[in-house]
Amino acid sequence: MSAPTTYKIAAIPADGVGAEVVAAGRTVLDAMAAASGGTFAFDWTEFPWSCEYYTRTGRMMAEDGLDVLRDFDAIYFGAVGWPSVPDHISLWGLRLKICQNFDQWANIRPVHFHPGITSPLRKADDADLDWVVVRENSEGEYAGLGGRNLSGRGEGNEVALQTALFTERGCERIIRFAFDLARERPRKKVSSVTKSNAQQFGMVLWDETFTRVARDYPDVETESVLVDAMAAKFVLKPEDLSVVVASNLNADILSDLGSALAGSLGLAASANLNPDRRFPSMFEPVHGSAPDIAGRGLANPAGAIGSAALMLDHFGLQAEAARLNAAIEATAAAGVLTPDVGGNAKTDEVTEAVLGVLSEWP
Ligand code: ATP
Ligand code: MG
């Protein structure tokens, strides 16, 4: 028998429920590897980078952290942020730093109904919601450009500038990514989201790029929708969407709305991809560190386990990814649910149930 393909994974649980849900995902991935008949294996290294690490060291990650991470096949991330550290410091010092330095320009956030979970939207059992939000993850509103204290006129007169950066190359690559993804889905449609009536430079460049790229995909249906109208559409006509592509900020907001519509923020999975594969990609649940429930075993691990499925998919293990997603759904359908989705199961009980489903299937 040949040696298994071993994937080197950096685990960064970071803060709050991050530790609980990353542990859940690791358990599930290790069980799948053990059951793979020696086909694949995971070699984990865990890093303590977090707000607690910041309090001890004054840094969110080790000084050579990026160099260390570069050698991994992927990063499995929990959640960053804790009330003891300002959010912009913790976010920029760890998560956004990794995203930007490893050119993870595509952030994929699938949103769909889970059988057995009540959505605030679900009008009938057969109502449909199955989208992927594709988020531009390298520039836009999160480019980090601007400054404080620009007026020089002292207290009470501060002026701050926050600039969004849009490049034609940045717009084009994420829009093409969205079209390529749409071609693989049952509904071949891409909805592009901007606010180009009010933001007349970058967002107009985005719209024009979308129109141009769309010509290369005549088989894919398209629409351009303003973000305010799209928020309404998420609620009123969810069945009309398939792939939704938007800038960094707009897609962030829309994907939180999407996961809430699916039933809970705790369900939502995501991948920060470096599609060029020059750097490791990062897989993480959409939710934050949830200080209100952290450390109590109440966190829903579905988003983190779903992110593990996205990682399997990234490694070319499509059948295993589909199997894992089906196991998450079967667990919910069987009523093993954490409190955020109306149940009273603990994190570990959901994880055990997912493992049970996986072990029963051939
Ligand atoms: P961030 O700024 O990092 O996105 P946030 O402020 O948006 O964080 P979260 O930490 O995601 O907030 O929490 C928002 C709400 O969702 C909280 O009430 C939290 O308890 C709940 N929540 C988040 N993740 C989970 C989870 N995995 N399971 C259950 N509830 C969750
Ligand atoms: Mg949030």
Shape descriptor = globular
- Small ligands present: adenosine-5'-triphosphate, magnesium ion
| Strand coverage percent | 15-25%
- Detail the poorly predicted runs: none
Q: Tally the helices: what do you get?
A: 11
Along the chain, the helix and strand elements come as EHEHHEHEEEEHEHEHEHEEHHH
Sheet bearing the most strands, described?
10 strands, mixed
> Which value, in Å, is the CA radius of gyration?
20 Å
Question: Which structural class do you get from the secondary structure elements?
Answer: alpha/beta
Description of the structure:
The protein contains eleven helices and twelve strands. The protein has 362 residues and is α/β, with parallel strands linked by helices. The strands form two sheets. The protein has a ten-stranded mixed sheet, sandwiched between helices. The chain has a two-stranded antiparallel sheet with strand order 6-7. The longest helix is centred in the N-terminal third of the chain and has 18 residues. The mean pLDDT is 94. The site of adenosine-5'-triphosphate (ATP) has 17 residues, from helix 1.
Write the layout of secondary structure elements.
Blueprint: E1 5-14, H1 17-34, E2 40-46, H2 51-57, H3 65-69, E3 74-79, H4 87-101, E4 106-112, E5 130-136, E6 140-147, E7 161-165, H5 168-183, E8 189-194, H6 202-214, E9 221-226, H7 227-236, E10 243-246, H8 248-262, E11 269-273, E12 281-285, H9 302-314, H10 318-333, H11 347-360
Parallel strand pairs: 1-2, 1-3, 3-12, 5-10, 8-9, 8-10
Antiparallel strand pairs: 4-5, 4-11, 6-7, 11-12
The structure holds adenosine-5'-triphosphate and magnesium ion (MG).
Adenosine-5'-triphosphate (ATP) binds at residues 17, 21, 79, 81, 265-266, 287-290, 292-293, 299-300, 303, 338, 340.
